[in-house]
Every structure is written in C-alpha cells, then in structure tokens.
Amino acid sequence: MSINPSEQASIPGAEPVRCAVIAGSQRTGSESARIGRHIAARCLALTGQPAYLLDLAQTVLPACESDVPPDDRWDRVSLALHACDALVVVTPEWGGMAPAALKNFFLLCQNNEIAHKPACLVGVSGGTGGAYPIAELRMSSYKNTHVCYIPEQIIVRGAQDALRDRPQDERERQLRVRIDYALGMLVAYGAALRAVRRSDSIDLARYPYGA
Question: Can you give the CATH number for the domain in which 101 is found?
C-alpha cells in the first residue's frame, strides 16, 4: 500500500513528527515571520503536532563568538530544537543574501541540535527574487550543523500579498498546494531520518565537523 507523505504522521502506531519553523528575519513584523506562522499552522494540520516557531526578531539570540559561550537564551532554543525531527527555514532576501541573524542561528547550532535532520528552505521576496538566499544556505550552512536539506523548496514572491485569508489567484492556489506537498515530503524525511540518527553509523564525537 502506498502512503502519501503528508499522511505519514497519522499512520497508527507511527511516532509523530514534530517540526521547527525558523523565521529568519531580524526585522519586527516581517513578512517572513507572518509566512512562518502560516507554515507552522500547516505543519500542525499535517502532523497533528504543534510546530516550534522561532522568530529571530522576537527571540534575539546571542552573537556566536568563539570566546563567548552562548547564554540561556540559546539554551532554551537548543532544547526545543533537540526535541524536533525536521525544520523549515524561512529566509528573506536582503541584498541577495540571507540575513545576519539567520546565519548566526546556524553558527550557534554547535551541539548537534539539527544534525541529520531534514530541512525545507523557504525563500521570501517582496518582488520577484528570493532564490539567492536558498542557494547560499544550501552551500554554506550544512557543513558543521550536518542539517540535511531536502530537494523540495518554496519561494514566496510578492510576499506582502501572499498567503493571507484566501488565495488571490490560481498562482497562489498552486503555491499553497506546493507548500503542503513540500511539508508532506519533509514529514516523510523526518520519520525516515530517525533511523539514521539512532543508528551506530553516526559518530559526531569523532567527526563533529563536515569536511
């Protein structure tokens, strides 16, 4: 019997998958945070589990500096991330780049919080951009965190008008369908990668850094 990925979490006896949604903008009241809340609601609908939502404008994290250990603000986030099976990373495009607060988030993930967990990237643009931060994060943020980006990704363009009460046109209707599809795939990866994390193949104490 084939299983739709979005139904994976509701299979009788299956361990529920819990998602973390990282809203990567450091700007208060950002479109990224609003879209992150929309995605967190869809995660709840698909998995039956409340998503952990981290808004980097509301939770200002300490700067990652080699000689200054993270404080209790990061300790609380770290514990929440350890309890999650999958991540959605929502990133705005600032000057063609991911914002500093989001890059700092990945630098703080030094205790295997997201290691060998799947992540889905969501780009956000007020215009027609949004692709560059996704390429940047795929290239640079996985090395020491060991996060596993899935092939699916989402770009929300014209973000100020998107994902509000009801679809404004067929293009947005298709965007909503694609978001649910990508999240369904993420949930399936989240369930599958548990076996990897629980296996004897991983030795993060010996190999904490990507090559």
Answer: 3.40.50.360
Count up the domains in the chain and report the number: 1
Three-state SS at 31: helix
User: C-alpha angle with apex 192: 197 to 18, nearest 5 degrees?
Assistant: 85
For residue 133, is it within any domain? yes
Give the residue numbers spanning the domain of 55: 17-61+72-197
Pairing of strands 118-125, 86-92: parallel
53 phi/psi in degrees, rounded to 5:
-105, 120
- For the chain, 211 residues long, give each residue's pLDDT as a single digit of tens: 233 544 444 444 478 999 999 999 999 999 999 999 999 999 999 999 999 999 999 999 999 886 667 778 899 999 999 999 999 999 999 999 999 999 999 999 999 999 999 999 999 999 999 999 999 999 999 999 999 999 999 999 999 999 998 888 999 999 999 999 999 999 999 999 999 999 999 999 999 998 7
Burial class from Cβ neighbours inside 10 Å (0-12, 13-18, 19+) for residue 95 reads: exposed
Amino acid letter, 193: L
N- to C-terminal Cα distance for the chain? 40
Q: Is residue 204 part of a domain?
A: no
Task: Report the amino acid identity of residue 186.
Answer: L
Name the residue type at position 68: V
* 66: in domain: no
- C-alpha distances (whole Å) from 140 to each of 17, 20, 51, 170 are 26, 20, 25, 35
